[in-house]
Amino acid sequence: DDGEEIGRVVEKCLLDWEINNVLAISAGNASSYDAAVSYLGKRWTSTLEMLQVFEKFEIVFHWFENEDPSYIYELSNTCGVLVYADWERVRDVIYFLHPFYESNEKILGSHVTSNMFLEEISDIECHLDNWGKSCMQREEHEFKASQFVWNYMEYWGDVEDSNMLIYIANILDPRRKTHSMEFYFANEKYSYVYTNEGEHMWIKKAEWVVAAIYDLFNEYAGRSGVPHQNANFQTSEYMHYLYHDTSPRGLFHSRKVHFGGNEGRLTEIDIYLNEDGFKDFDGFDVLLWWKLHSKRFPVLSKMAKDVLAIPISAVALESDINADGNLLDDFRSSLSPSMVEALVCTQDWIKKSTRPYKLEEGSTKVAGKILKDNLVEETKGPLTSY
């Protein structure tokens, strides 16, 4: 509403002008003043930044208590003097929010590839789990943390409800392959859960994902024009050796597959998954790796390029870590598939330009052009009577 819009404008002005010290903000006689203040209070990124600065002045506030008698008198009649427990709460909130802030910075970067998303999700889940265990006796913190847990579980509670490309993209990272996915599935959520057949649930989840990447590879291979044979995960020798060790302790043991005389029958994806992971180092460029290995994996490299180029977040920057949930564009639900495709193609996120294209300004023009083209095509076609 108007109040939240005022809050966003105030926040944008403060950030644009790099104003770090604000004594007071007055909205005059605006009826939406309270809503604006409420909006700013729910912006967790702003809250974190303010608390980090505020916590550094703890000694200063203690000094005021000893040197300025009016300080204690005035605060006693309002919010009260800050005590040790208040500063502990500040540090607790900083500790709780900081991992979200770090993940937010990574996900909303300029050149982020989708292989990073699974590990960020795993880190957030681990952080929420550890926080929940550590604050069982602090109900005020546990209540606020439970809102984050509820939002997390709503999106990522079940792998079958998640976007499969999140896991496929992580497998297409030559440093990770199936290892990060296995770790994610083999945590407490699945490690002690069994299927009706007595198998570990995490194994079934992992097989489900790997089978999907085999199906996707076959689809790409079928339209690539490159001579190939279909890869069948259910009958491949890779599947036979991949999850032979069902104990959680044996999860990360090396599983070197020996195919004997079957090398000629292996597909690109069999070879890729069977090989040892690429050594990790700072500055590793996953897109460059696939470009350099495109001759060896012609079909798989094409698939990797498409999957890794998918933006891992379509949420606007002003909507991140919001206590009220994601604030989506007003027209998002009414966009046609052709409109979405046009916006994605014109907003090339990998090739960052010096002057970014503003979707808000150009979406109307693009939509009008598509609508005009569709009308022209319809008028050329045969008339249908009802």
UniProtKB/TrEMBL annotation:
Residues 110-220 form the hAT-like transposase RNase-H fold domain. GO terms for molecular function: DNA binding; protein dimerization activity. It comes from the Eukaryota. Residues 268-350 form the HAT C-terminal dimerisation domain. This is HAT C-terminal dimerisation domain-containing protein. The lineage of its organism: Eukaryota, Viridiplantae, Streptophyta, Embryophyta, Tracheophyta.
